[in-house]
Amino acid sequence: MSATARNTRALQLAARREQFLAAAERMFLKEGFAKTSVNAIVREAGGSLATLYAEFGTKEALFESVLSQRAARFFPETRPRPPTGACDAGAELRRLATHMLKRMLTEDALAVYRICVYEAPHFPGLRKAVLEVGIPGLLQGTARHLIDLAAVHALRIDDADLAASQFVALVQGQLVLMAACGEHIDARTRDRQIVNAVHAFLRLYPVCGGKRD
After folding, report:
1. 3-state class (DSSP) for residue 79
2. pLDDT tens by residue, 156-187
3. What is each CA distance from 39 to 30, 51, 211, in whole angstroms?
4. CA distance to 20, 62, 82, 89, 159, per residue, from 202 (Å)
5. Whole-prediction pTM value?
6. Nearest Cα to Cα of residue 115 among 17, 211, 25
């Protein structure tokens, strides 16, 4: 096979992979994990069942790839670094918390949350994907933002992974669970949660310079 033919084949397989992932994400979010069949995903995406299994291996591995892709999209690909010097850490944290909580409360994110909570206990492969890909992806993205703040001496953070875990827990509080159960979360409730979360976080990680909150 020529180099051109190999490149063409690689591009075709990459495109097919993206089609599988897009179809799988739509169907998982609509039907849940258990009710979504790989045959239905193939019918939605096109291609063949053999190609899907060759690419992903199992339905659980396909869901893991969906989670990985969603985690990568959770935060913007590029983000401005906090300004050096007098940095308003409270304002930076509120911006981060607002972005995160808005994303967490979207219908798509709540659908993933329901799958993780209600279905993962029954499927070992799904549970593994949630614990080893979904949650770490969120925490790693959060840690990168907190490291940026620490880098300009806005916050004293020695363990970014621990700080990220605490920040996520404070930001989502009970609101994500409430929303997943069908409770409407209005903007005022969401904003109050953000202010309280940042206030509590800054008690754990004092500001080195700039305003506190």
Report:
1. coil
2. 899 999 999 999 999 999 999 999 999 999 99
3. 16, 12, 55
4. 43, 39, 16, 9, 15
5. 0.84
6. 25
